[in-house]
C-alpha cells in the first residue's frame, strides 16, 4: 500500500549544532520504512520486531516547536549530539497522515490514517517502566529528534506499534502540541489527585505547557 511519494521532502535541518546553531530549510531524502534503522537501538533490537515490516511512512502536516528541541540543537544537555546519531532534524510534536504501510502492519494501519508523532518515537515495550505505564523512564527509549529523525521535516518513519492515532474532529495544528506539552500536563493532572471543583495554579500559565494545563484543568 502506498501513495504518490516524492524522492525528496522539505526539512528544517540543524546547521552548526551548538551555541550558534541555525535551522536551514533543505530538501532531504524521503526515508523508506523497509530500509530505515535508527542508529540508536534498532527497532528489532529493542523488541524483537522486524525493522522491515512494522514501520509507517508518515507525511507530516504540522510540527510543534518545543524548548527541548532547542536544547537538542544547542547540545547543552547531558545527551549525545543529534549528529552523532545521524539525526539532522529536531522536533517531536508532529501530526500528519500515513502514506506507506509496512507489510506486517497492514491489518492495523492504512494509507490516509491520521497520526501523531510524540517525544518518544519508540520504547522497549519489555521492561518494568514500560509495563507500568511509565515508559518515559524506559532506559532504551528512542527520543524523536535526538536518537531518530524528528518532526521538522515532511516525511518521517515511525514504528507502527507506538504511533498515536488522531481522531476525526481534532485538527492537525491542535493534535501536534498535544503530543508533548498537553500530554505532559495531562499526566501531571491525573497524578495530582485533583478533583472537580478544586483550584489549580500553573506557574508560567501563559507558556506552551501551562496554557495546555489551564485548558485541560478547565
Ligand atoms: Zn516537547
Ligand atoms: Zn522499556
From TrEMBL:
UniProt xrefs under Gene3D superfamilies: Medium-chain alcohol dehydrogenases, catalytic domain, NAD(P)-binding Rossmann-like Domain
Domain of life: Eukaryota
The entry's keywords: Metal-binding, Oxidoreductase, Zinc
Named cofactor requirement(s): Zn(2+)
InterPro entries: ADH-like_N, ADH_Zn_CS, GroES-like_sf
Alphabetized Pfam families for the sequence: ADH_N (PF08240)
Alcohol dehydrogenase-like N-terminal domain boundaries: 53-168
Protein name: Alcohol dehydrogenase-like N-terminal domain-containing protein
